[in-house]
Amino acid sequence: MIEAVGLTKRYGERTAVDQLSFTVRPGQVTGFLGPNGAGKSTTMRMILGLDTPTGGRVTIDGKPFRQLDNPMREVGALLDAKAIHGGRSAHHHLLCLAQTNNLPKRRVDEVLDLVGLAEVARKRAKGFSLGMGQRLGIAAALLGDPKILMFDEPVNGLDPEGILWIRNLMKSLAAEGRTVFVSSHLMSEMENTADHLLVIGRGRMIADCTVQEFIDQNSELAVRVRTPDPTRMAELVTGAGGRAVTDGEGALLVSELTMDRIGDLAFDNGVRLHELSLLQASLEQAFMELTRDTVEYHAAVPGGREVSS
Ligand SMILES: Nc1ncnc2c1ncn2[C@@H]1O[C@H](COP(=O)(O)OP(=O)(O)OP(=O)(O)O)[C@@H](O)[C@H]1O
């Protein structure tokens, strides 16, 4: 179990992590979500004792990381998959780690098998693809057979097969009763993997809930309306207290009014309708909406334009 209380990190004027309090529990995958620069890596580095908090504390099974007797047997982490000596083979790299951490040599072959690198184990890591490097980083995290595993953006740059493999691995590690904490800036990656979500923005906690609760609370329903007179329809919607945006294909997406109310408005005002259908916003949209005000760098997006009436 990982527990943070009032965890804070400031770099000069900048507060990277702001009073975070949370618990990461065993037996489930906890997704740590936030836009770029939200403070995920900084939080993970503090959990692992690589950065010192400015305020608050974080413990692993009740102890700060630096006080753990056998860190690699208790916590395994993948922070930066490229942090490997390129001249070494995968086998040699893991063997060095095992020897310096007092772990049995047989674990090296076990984890190489587990991550599917047994056949290339004697080749230099320098020639490894991104996916192979990622697998080697995961092998290192698993070497001490730890109860707690942390992965920082583990699927970045991986192909669909690699992504599926990591997803299934995380789920099976959690099913064995381990604590699995994984960061991502994409909701779509967490949607099918995580049981619990911690969502942060600008270093602050925005949501701490199950995936189902997140869906129930944030996936707003919208109604798609196609009409030959979208400007008039948008005026009627706005006048009735609703919100209308165009979807880039000429249709209106209306929120905050029921489908029945929109149909009645059109009928009462003689606006011809070609489509009236209910849409469920995706979880990715809900996440973007929730963190919108905390994103550091915005890019202009075509479409999704607000209709002024
Ligand atoms: N060593 C540092 N010195 C100064 N500022 C830092 C340092 N490390 C991180 N920051 C700042 O702290 C904030 C949080 O960064 P962090 O890397 O933890 O975010 P993140 O959520 O992991 O983002 P990403 O998804 O882009 O990796 C950012 O604004 C970043 O610029």
Automatic annotation (TrEMBL):
Keyword presence, ATP-binding: yes
Sorted UniProt keywords: ATP-binding, Nucleotide-binding, Transport
ABC transporter domain: which residues?
A: 2-227
Q: Which InterPro entries match?
A: AAA+_ATPase (IPR003593), ABC_transporter-like_ATP-bd (IPR003439), P-loop_NTPase (IPR027417)
Pfam families to which the protein is assigned, alphabetical: ABC_tran (PF00005)
The UniProt entry, under SUPFAM superfamilies, shows: P-loop containing nucleoside triphosphate hydrolases
Q: Which family does it belong to?
A: Belongs to the ABC transporter superfamily.
Q: What is this protein called?
A: ABC transporter domain-containing protein
Q: Record the organism.
A: Rugosimonospora acidiphila
